[in-house]
Write a structure and sequence with these properties.
The protein has one domain (25-105). With 107 residues, the protein is of the alpha+beta class. The chain has helices at residues 2-5, 10-20, 27-32, 39-45, 91-105; strands at residues 35-38, 55-60, 66-70, 75-77, 86-88. The chain has a five-stranded antiparallel beta sheet with strand order 1-2-3-4-5.
Amino acid sequence: MTKLLEPHNVKYIQRLQRMSDKENLDVYDFNQTGTIMTREDYQNYHKHIVLHKKCTDVIKYIGGNYIQMLSDGNYLIQYDTSKRGKRSKDLKKLEQYLFKIISSNEK
């Protein structure tokens, strides 16, 4: 999917290929897959995803995961709009939280 979305970002694709050779990804590896997209660009590819009204940009990660960047300086993980989600001004904290959820679902 990444190759289709970003065919000219050779370094990013190479980085993902190197990571795919590893047996287990750690939180650092996961964080390194993040790329920032404008809200508009993200929604052009993911029309079915409802973003928060204050969302200005989206950081997308491997596996279809994403964190929203809000206009008030917070970051937000909210995959289910009927729930509050988790927000913080500390991106690393949310990335660790997201990685923990993903890691626990893989077991």
